[in-house]
Amino acid sequence: MSPLLRALPALTLLAMLGPVAAGLWGALLPAFGHLPAAGFTGPSLVAWQNLLAWPGIRAATALSLGTGLLTTLASLLIVTLITAGWWGTRSFRALERLLSPLLSVPHAAAAFGLAFLIMPSGWLVRAVSPWLTGWERPPDILVVGDPWGLSMTAGLIAKETPFLLLMTLAALGQVNATRSMAVARSMGYGRVAAWLKAVFPAIYAQIRLPVYVVLAYSMSVVDVALILGPSTPATLSAQIVRWMSDPDLSMRLVASAGAILQLGLVVGALAAWRLGELAVAWWGCGWASGGGRGRSLDATRPVALGLAALSAFAILAGLLALTLWSFAGLWRFPDLWPDGLTLRSWMRHARGLNDALADTVLVALTATALAMVLTIGCLQSEFRSGRAMGRYGLWLLYLPLIVPQTAFLPGLQTLLLRVGADKGVMPVIAAHLVFVLPYVFLSLGDPWRAWDRRQATVGAALGATPTRVLLAIRLPMLLRPLLVAAAVGVSVSVGQYLPTLLIGGGRVATLTTEAVALASGGDRRAIGVFGLSQTLAALLPFALATLLPLVIWRNRRGLHG
Amino acid sequence: MADGLHLDDITIGKDDETLIAIDARVAPGQVLSIMGPSGVGKSTLLAFLTGTLPPAFDATGHVRLDGRDLTGLPPEKRNLGILFQDDLLFPHLSVAGNLGFGLRGGSRAGRHAQVAAALDEVGLAGFGPRDPATLSGGQRARIALMRMLLARPDALLLDEAFSRLDSARRQATRRMVFDTARARGLPVVMVTHDPADAEAAQGPVIRLGDADPLRSNPT
């Protein structure tokens, strides 16, 4: 094994965790009043005093905890009930096929879509106006941006449900659900009770880290908060970003203190969730061994199906609304459809779209290519050394997804500013890599390890070196999972908002930053154009990942499992 | 110097427990059968011979082939052909691509001719451009055998190589492998759980793990 291959796992960890650690360090110093570049030398508590003096601090803290816990609970509940009630049925497979592509829809696009549905002049109100409501003008009610963050939570639930469902499906591969279900149901347990008592504990053990990701993410998300969340006061993370962009450099101290607070809130919520897990496990063991057949629980089946379908509908109908608005001519309230369709909006934004697309593609492809090389290198090094990544390795992979973006990206920006590396596209690519790498690794890891290693033995027996085995046997055989992992990488990068905004210093404009920047303006046609483009940029790689292997291996039946 | 395959005082263990202890010599053209129920580490022995033993195992002893010590060599330098119970044809390559994979050097035309001759030899002339997944089990087994032989191995290892074939195919394939080994003077180590395999091999038989893995004496 070459020294380079041996060093790759360490290099990968550095690329993934280095920016996180540096960013946290870079936030810690200013949070305690130390930012020499702006003329502040600490330590002092001035940043914390200013943070606590901000009138929105209580509401922002409550919002972060509320949206995070509610989103996680609700999406976990929907996913658990839908799998418990419907796994193995035709409806479940239909839902699975419907939800899988929705996973790659960027958060911002899904949030815009939902806004287009539920706002007072949105599709839902139009559908019942004026014949039912009598409204000739949009009613004056605050739906999008409500102070309790409910519409924001709804958007997050719709987006996290497909994520947790897919993670559950992946976990089902490791758990023998069919047999456990058969045993439990033969004893007279209802479908839902059998699942909850016999299968769910094993599933949850597998999806625990993704659940933590959902909790941390929905507590600290910025783009969805800017689109669907309240503005006065904003959520804590949105406010941190606002402080970061304040021309008054002393606000960076407050932003840094906010970043540390956000981290503390997430750590606290994770700890509380863990305690909740223990309590549920303790109670659940008694419940499961209590012998109650729980057949009445099957009454939740239609509810679960309805909720899962609703979450799919929210995103699909939202995307349709985005599409329609991007082509809409005149579209008056309360008309359900626009008067006509036109390309005018697309033409008007063609230039901006082109520039944003160029940056998006450059960042996404470079970050994904780097992530693929590092991931394949790590997996190959693992394969060659025969030492598998342990439980801690998995935790390290999930760490950049669990540490909130608003906790370390502000500090990272401050550090980059200090060393004068805050310009250009390279730092943005490095910041994207932090999030692209874990997802690429998680996507490729299982199929890579499931590959029959006897193929390598056969290759070696035929005289092929390990490099030739990799290039001529393993990579071609794994073409499909490789392309899927690359598509995951691209769609993760396309969807990133904060790393582009903060690390790019406004000089790197992607489809996502452009789309989110339109949120406050309310130009629905422009939002439609950018939101739809963003979605297509994230979805197209998946279409390619599905189609290319079919074309390239069209004469190779053995590769189409 | 063709004095066969020597397995000199090989012991393989894991977590301070010895799984396999073996000391044997396989003459050119001879077939050594390693018998035993599944799970006694028959395939582990072959992994040691091919140099693909996972690091969790501790192994001592030496493998020598025609006077060459293979023990420390990387798998691709050992020149040992191996057949598994699955044919393991590379699914992304054509039949000809699979056969060509193990050929060493030679001109394009020469390689083509060798592949064509190999296909002819096993009664599959004209199958070169085919997708291996469209072949029958018996056809695939023959291609896997020819692929191994075209790489000109110095010895053959068989890991339950016939157990997936139906009984008619099994006899024919077995005979073809043993005849080829004899004709080319290749020592063969065959791991199997089927007494009929060992019988057909007409060579020495070692039983592993009947009662105690430590008492695995050659018969």
From TrEMBL, chain A:
Keywords: Cell membrane, Membrane, Transmembrane, Transmembrane helix, Transport
Transmembrane stretches, start-end: 62-87, 108-128, 148-172, 209-229, 249-273, 303-328, 361-380, 392-412, 424-444, 478-498, 527-553
Xref: SUPFAM superfamilies: MetI-like
Main subcellular localisation: membrane
Membrane topology field: Multi-pass membrane protein
InterPro entries: MetI-like, MetI-like_sf
Record-given protein name: ABC transporter permease
Provenance organism: Palleronia pontilimi
One of the record's GO cellular component terms: plasma membrane
Location in the cell: Cell membrane
Any one Gene Ontology BP term: transmembrane transport
Domain ABC transmembrane type-1: residue ranges: 57-272, 357-548
Signal peptide boundaries: none
Keyword Zinc annotated: no
UniProtKB/TrEMBL annotation, chain B:
Entry protein name: ATP-binding cassette domain-containing protein
Source organism per UniProt: Palleronia pontilimi
Lineage, highest ranks first: Bacteria, Pseudomonadati, Pseudomonadota, Alphaproteobacteria, Rhodobacterales
Location of the ABC transporter domain: 5-218
The keyword Chaperone is annotated on this UniProt entry: no
Entry keyword set: ATP-binding, Nucleotide-binding, Transport
InterPro entries for the chain: AAA+_ATPase (IPR003593), ABC_SmlMolc_Importer (IPR050093), ABC_transporter-like_ATP-bd (IPR003439), P-loop_NTPase (IPR027417)
Superkingdom of origin: Bacteria
SUPFAM superfamilies listed in its UniProt record: P-loop containing nucleoside triphosphate hydrolases
SMART domains, per the entry: AAA
Keyword Zinc: no
PANTHER family assigned to the protein according to its UniProt record, in alphabetical order: SPERMIDINE/PUTRESCINE IMPORT ATP-BINDING PROTEIN POTA, SPERMIDINE_PUTRESCINE IMPORT ATP-BINDING PROTEIN POTA
GO terms, molecular function: ATP binding; ATP hydrolysis activity
